[in-house]
Q: What sequence folds into this?
């Protein structure tokens, strides 16, 4: 029993960094504080509508993203796009609930203009504070990498590029001859594996990164026995760059350490936040666009014979089959084992259908899929079942994108990967964007994608 308890305490999830904790509350807190100051400046009372707005804003923006390591220009763009999206959502809610009348124009104007500026200034101050803290000699962390292969070079580059972390990369240790190590590492070899512990003691090394292949297990065990006699922190970097890691994490399963390599980001509170945001946003949008839906339905009916709604089988969450709704844009309805993709000047597309596809209005019925729970507003775009059967055999990790519900829009679409995928390379790039979305999901990223999609509706012409 004693050994089991000791083993259980050995593995645990990494604690949240102080900067991440500060960032989680920074933007939501600033947003609420600026609104409160604007209300007090105008001698407006903090009544129920004002408190309700503060709670709604905090819920929609918490946790705030950690932008302290972003470039200032990128941070400014992200802050502005997220803020515009949030204001648009709040305006839709105010319109739907007729609550705009409870707030004064001067208060709202000051809040809208000042908040993003203060958020950006907070990021600038945070970056400066981190760099100043990292520049102090007592906060520098000498680090070495054990293993001078491609993985070791990746780790060394990551250490050197992260200025705010305060790491001084010293060099590599490897038993192999110069001809067998990575060319970028050969000039900085400090010695063999037997030299790691003495060097760490002599030079005050605080961090040791082991990047040896798993086949070198006996050497790794021997190395660990040696370096545990130093005060350096020890990190093992497994060579998993050939695997698409989605939401990687370390968990304790009744005393057994389990490394998660491919998981959905929507678990626990994330799943609840995702579903609530989908239902709220989709409900508001459906109410607002109902006249447009009726007009498009009439146009589809008059444009050519056939049903108004086109139902197509797609693969949804965990690869399960779902039915996706779209306004019919073609004279034929392909949903068999072979589904030709729409191409430019496709004779199957009606004139009205071409307009709907170009403006993405044909996809508006998918908001009902969102309300049903088979789709999300943001996620990897669903492909026809026939296309999935084809691409999963030739594109690595293709089916991993089905770890989440498919979306009306996605990270790939706002990055230019929209329309016909007439080559394998185009589909491969689209899939990589989808996997990047799964790795980095946050509510803020969803809002950013929604804002980018609105822009594409007016300026993009790639779909047909």
A:
């Amino acid at each position: 029993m004693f050994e089991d308890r000791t083993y259980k305490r050995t593995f645990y999830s990494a604690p949240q960094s102080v900067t991440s904790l500060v960032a989680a509350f920074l933007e939501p807190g600033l947003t609420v504080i600026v609104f409160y100051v604007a209300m007090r400046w105008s001698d407006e009372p903090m009544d129920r509508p004002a408190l309700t707005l503060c709670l709604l804003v905090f819920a929609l923006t918490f946790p705030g993203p950690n932008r302290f390591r972003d470039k200032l220009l990128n941070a400014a763009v992200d802050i502005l796009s997220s803020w515009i999206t949030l204001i648009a959502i709040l305006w839709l809610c105010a319109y739907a609930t007729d609550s705009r009348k409870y707030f004064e124009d001067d208060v709202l104007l000051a809040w809208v203009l000042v908040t993003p500026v203060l958020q950006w200034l907070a990021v600038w101050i945070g970056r400066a504070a981190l760099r100043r803290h990292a520049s102090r000699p007592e906060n520098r962390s000498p680090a070495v990498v054990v293993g001078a292969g491609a993985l070791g070079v990746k780790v060394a580059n990551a250490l050197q590029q992260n200025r705010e972390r305060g790491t001084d990369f010293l060099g590599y240790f490897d038993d192999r001859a110069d001809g067998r190590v990575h060319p970028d590492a050969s000039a900085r070899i400090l010695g063999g594996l037997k030299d790691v512990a003495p060097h760490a003691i002599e030079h005050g090394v605080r961090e040791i990164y082991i990047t040896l292949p798993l086949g070198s297990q006996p050497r790794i065990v021997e190395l660990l026995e040696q370096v545990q006699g130093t005060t350096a922190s020890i990190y093992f970097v497994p060579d998993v760059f050939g695997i698409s890691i989605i939401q990687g994490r370390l968990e304790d399963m009744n005393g057994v350490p389990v490394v998660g390599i491919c998981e959905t980001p929507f678990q626990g509170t994330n799943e609840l936040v995702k579903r609530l945001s989908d239902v709220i946003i989709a409900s508001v949008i459906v109410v607002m666009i109902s006249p447009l839906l009726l007009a498009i339905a009439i146009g589809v009916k008059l444009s050519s014979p056939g049903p108004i709604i086109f139902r197509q089988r797609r693969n949804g969450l965990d690869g399960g089959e779902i039915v996706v709704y779209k306004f019919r844009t073609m004279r034929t309805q392909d949903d068999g084992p072979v589904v030709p993709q729409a191409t430019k000047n496709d004779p199957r597309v009606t004139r009205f259908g071409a307009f709907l596809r170009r403006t993405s209005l044909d996809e508006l019925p998918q908001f009902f899929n969102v309300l049903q729970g088979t789709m999300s507003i943001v996620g990897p775009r669903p492909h026809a079942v026939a296309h999935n059967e084809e691409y999963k055999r030739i594109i690595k990790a293709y089916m991993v994108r089905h770890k989440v519900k498919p979306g009306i829009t996605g990270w790939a679409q706002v990055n230019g990967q929209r329309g016909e995928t007439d080559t394998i390379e185009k589909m491969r790039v689209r899939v990589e964007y989808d996997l990047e979305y799964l790795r980095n999901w946050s509510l803020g990223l969803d809002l950013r994608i929604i804002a980018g999609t609105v822009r594409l509706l007016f300026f993009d012409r790639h779909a047909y």
Observations:
- The two ends are 65 Å apart (CA to CA).
- Residues 274 and 281 are 11 Å apart (CA to CA).
